Amino acid sequence: MKRVAKPTFATWCAAGLTGLSLYAAASHAADNSPAINALLQQAVYWHDKSHDDLARESLQKVLAVDENNADALYLLALYSLKNGNQAQAAKWRARLTAVSPSDTRLQSLDSANVVQAISPAQLAYASRIAADGSTLQAVASYRALFQDATPPDSLAVEYYDTLAWLPSARPQAIAGLRSRLQALPNDRSARLALGRILTYDEANRREGIAILTPLASASRNADAALRQALLWLAPQAADKADYDRYMQRHPNDSALWQHFQQSVGGTEKGAGYAALNSGDTAAARSRFEAVLTANPNDGDALAGLGYIALRNNDFTSAENYLNQATKQGGANSAQWAALAQDAKFYGALNQAKAAAAAGNPAQALTLSAPLAQETGDKGLAAALFRADLQRRQNDLIGAEQTYRAILNRDAQNKDAKLGLYYTLRQENSPGVAANPTRRRASP
What is the 3-state secondary structure (H, E, C) of 202-257? Predict the structure, then answer.
């Protein structure tokens, strides 16, 4: 696949080293007086306009006031290199070394010296084949230009960016960029390259995303790299903040948000149902809630919370969750709808039981009357509740009638047989109680 060509040092090398001079000098300019800073800025201006004679004049004025001014010495050495005057460059570099032996710009001068010796045509060739995807050949070309040494500052990012396309050499590229950022923490191009390269591998992807995120709002390249990384990532619920930050800038990027929802949903739901099946309802709840944080309308997660509520006899919550799940549609919606009706029934039956426990048997019987008309096990459960309540209230005739009605629907119902037996015992009908299914003779 052909890669998009990036601006390289080769494209601006012929126009001068102004960018390098501004970058390196800026970190020291705060130590100067306003008058000296004005002369330094004037020198940079004239150099940018290709008036190096005027630039040197401004810098000599600085040295007339402060003969050991490191900024002026650095710029004089750099401009001499740019003009091909190696002897003058060496002279100014020696003075800078004497004044500031640990100055980081000494390495920049060495790098600039190396760059001056590089053939622009050969550098352009290496950049072109790198952009065309011929990575092995491009890396070999760069190394030949650098004579297998550390790449010069101005070409370091370009070189490491190319090197990273070789999986076996990627750790070397990452180490090189980390080293560069340790020395030059404000190098945004190196930071962007490091962040992007880290996202190539799953193990480092989150670190890369963390580096790219603060750069993305001001850099289209960083933003594009961040989006690709978020699409590559197999996200977890904890990654939601990264996707939220991106979506705040791109609210219409539905493909990215759908990737997050589907990925998180599949992983978390699988873990949630596994926990539910093993009886760990707390872990299951945590997983399902994580899914719903990403996608509040996920039917499977809503149903999962419904199942948990059913296990906890929280029928009101179960009905609510299962009805919400049903509204999402899907292959399981009919099953969820049936379970929601079950939850509604048993919630109503619980209300009747609560009324009985509170000493309101009449209300309990009223609430349970329509429930006993249900078919199947639900209707039988409500009828048994009513019969037991009638017997406890000494409505023995009513209890007997209800138990017998249950046995008409389910002749083998053990609970109804036992309830009827005790009812008949209470009615002092021992003969009938011995065979509760036999009806008593009419008087």
Answer: HHHHHHHHHHHHHHHCCCHHHHHHHHHHHHHCCCCHHHHHHHHHHHHHCCCCHHHH
